[in-house]
Amino acid sequence: MKKMGLIGGMSWESSLEYYRIINESVKSKLGGCHSANCLLYSFDFHEIEELQHKGEWEKLKNLMVNEVENLKRAGAEFIVICTNTMHLMAPDIEDNTGLKVVHIADATSDEIIKRNVEKVLLLGTKFTMEGSFYRERLEKNGIEVVIPSELDRQIIHDIIYDELILGILRPESKQSYIDIINKAIGEHVTGVVLGCTEIPLLINDNDVAIEVFNTTEIHSRAAVDFAISN
Asked: Example GO molecular function term (predicted)?
């Protein structure tokens, strides 16, 4: 089993889910007392969140590359970034460290294709919904990507940063997400990508009448598949 380096803490709420799903998946695939061979670096998300909203992406890239280098020196053989938004830096990490990043959007794209879904709604932070780094990886595989309206994007973003990363789960926020998803169903969307690793804390398969792509779970299982592959 290859040793994975996890970059977490963005937020720790979703990193906890990554650690659980990864270890459950290893146990399921290998049996016995097997668990994940992994290293974890966890950021203080306060610093990351401030830099994100200031648009200090170069500083964020340098922080990410530095910690991946530390994981590499500690023996990590590939990298798992335990958040959607910071995959913006995935190419820079690979170029600067020589380590493969198991990309969350590629894993999600594979799962969308597997379920024969052609048109999806992408939910996430504004950085993910409005940027091209995530959407283009889906579109290159023939998947049509829809993003919410500007107003709805702000609602989604604010709930993530003001509530979900703090572990706050409000019924009215859940309903806001469901309403936004239902609008997209009216536009013939047949799947929704929960493109922020905190959103599955609020929304699950039972909440809406279309395919739900939980990127935390999809990415975690893809990381395990890579770790145990030859």
From this structure: amino-acid racemase activity
